[in-house]
Amino acid sequence: MLEISPFVIFIASIFTNNMILSNFLGMCSFIAVSKEIPTSFGLGQAVTVVLAITSVINYLLYEYVLIPLGLEYLRFIVFIVSIAATVQLLEMILERYLPNLYYALGIFLPLITVNCAILGVSLFMIIREYTLIQSIAFSIGSGLGWTLAIVALAGIRKKLENAPIPKGLQGPGITLIITGLMAMAFIGFSGIVQIQ
Known about the structure:
By secondary structure, this protein is an all-alpha fold. It has helices spanning 6-14, 27-33, 37-69, 75-97, 99-105, 116-127, 132-159, 172-186.
């Protein structure tokens, strides 16, 4: 496999291979929580932290437990358990130290566990055969890209609150259209660098 610089992977995962705008992973919380910028930013930070921690844990579990024991087929279950444990720990920390953010995120904080972007990053790092450093760069970049996308969507939705949007497009309709337009705009970055 061609050795890709961790910095290139980091930049590509933010812009050209954005989890939301290129792979459309993590759309449920992306659309539901993107009504307010502070809440969107808080969820983006939580997703980035979970991605950074779980990518290291999942990489180490896969390389040093599952492969040596010939249990690679259990990666989905193992990855989901490590993600759930990390989210549970993050939820307890937020409830204790940042209660406003904890209550603002509501049900979507525990739903990070089933956010397919989190599992997608772990699976992409295995499929693409990333090293540990590449995996960390990919996961942090993916989290920052996810944060960038959700905060941008929240800002646009805030601007559109008083816009004359046709009744049939209000709510999820215009949100999906905006997401599609954002995805097309991010295609402009595809000439910079691509990772596959």
